[in-house]
Fold this sequence. Notes:
The complex is a heterodimer of chains A (247) and B (306). By secondary structure, chain A is mostly helical. Chain A is 77% helix and 0% strand. The radius of gyration of chain A is 18 Å and the shape is globular. Chain B is built from eleven helices and 13 strands. Chain B is globular, with a radius of gyration of 23 Å. The model of chain B is unreliable at 302-306 (pLDDT under 50).
Amino acid sequence: MSALTKLTAVEAKLFVREPIAMFWGLAFPALLLLILGLFFPGGREPSPDLGGMRLVDLYAPIALGLALATLAFATLPAILSTYRERGILRRLATTPVSPRRLVTAQLIIQVVLAVLAAALAIAVGAIVFDIPIPQNLVGFILAFVLAAAAMLSLGLLIGAVAPTVSAGQGIGMAVYFPMLFFAGVYFPREVMPEGLRNISDMTPTGAAVQAFSDTWAGLAPSTSSLLVMAAFAIGAGLLAAAEFRWE
Amino acid sequence: MSVIEVENLVKRYDDVAVVDGLSFTVERGEIFGILGPNGAGKTTTVESIAGLRRPDGGRIEVLGLDPQEDAKEIKERLGVQLQESRLPDRIEVWEALDLYSSFYRSPAHWPDLLDQLGLAEKRDTKFAKLSGGQKQRLSIALALVGNPEVAILDELTTGLDPQARRDTWGLVEQLRDQGVTIVLVTHFMEEAERLADRVALIDSGKLVALDTPAGLVARADDEQRIRFRPSSPIEDSLLTELPEVTGVTRVGDTIVVTGVGNVLHAVTSVLARNQIIAEQLRVEQVTLDDAFVALTGRSLGTPDSN
């Protein structure tokens, strides 16, 4: 077994031993859909305000954006800064295996979790609310890959430079909530005033939700949303690699 | 045959030379002590040897290789135990050993290491639930799991209770007997005296002295300290007029006499002549701490409470 495989297996084991983090990472998006559909008045009825869509239809892409944002900002930076503060990365640097591989193992875990969380949300939507799976499946997968890359890169950047666990958590959360806002979790992007909408389009989560909505409806994802996500993925990724502090 | 060569090592942080032209070699099979107060540059020095820090000047050679150029190869054969290194809270002892042993070409059989370090009972215990001593021993085990030829141990026994400390010393000697060359960083003088074949005294990033513990102690003028409680009052002059005596101080009702040569005989003779009994008589040899003070004018620092 290669060192990376072994590291990933151990990281997975450790993650499973933190049930609260697991819950939020995996179940939160599906839960959001359930609550909206079951407990919001009119959640399952087509609404003229929403162009004939139901609230749950509108929120399906947002729930996916939420899944990625939670992993990228509420989870990843805290894990990386914990490893830094505890000297785990430093200890690895004294072995033949580079601490980079531990970071890679963590990213693999986050990606797997993201896919699982998304699959769970889509399944719940389909089973409970008859929300169809994304019509433009290829486009949707492309959008999802880019969205994961964009948000995880940004989360990686935060985790790369935060000197302490508190900083990692603090900065992560400070980014997380605005990201949720611009994803449309609090109120949908469709009803945002133009200024806010434009800002939302430029955030990785806002762009992700746009791309998910487009492909869900069977359309091609908008070029601008793809570009925004790619820019974050590459920019944040490169910066994180350059600035990563191992201790 | 030298296993580590350090020549004029310089390392700066923000224009301060934390290591300032340090040179020494470590021979195969010895326990080499690096002793000095906190902030002397000891950890920076061994981190540079391990390849964790890039020197600003000088040359380092480990097993004939360069720690920056040949880092991966050196790390196969060099085990490092650094201070303040924790593990994830929920990892179990055996999982950590199993994981780390997978990093090396020819690792040790880690269940044996568990036994050797007295951690066999704690095999399935999570890291957060280990005692301070057990965490330290796990840290040592991880440094040894690669079957290293050379081991760097930084502040090995800080925070351990006296029994655990002595057990760890026994383990280090066992290691040396197995042929591992050991670099032992400590600010704890008794540890260096007990374990090291040679000791490098370091202060403010510079080498102050390099010798066997006995040799360093001998350099500090062969002074002895005699403590006792006189059974009846005694004048200082009775002792200070002895040629062997270099100083007399009083600590409460205890008298402390420092002197050289046959000072013990001289003191007991003069006491006997005056029919004074020396109660609770203790004789102390000069220690490495005294040698450090003699050579640098400063103390090693806050001694560990024993």
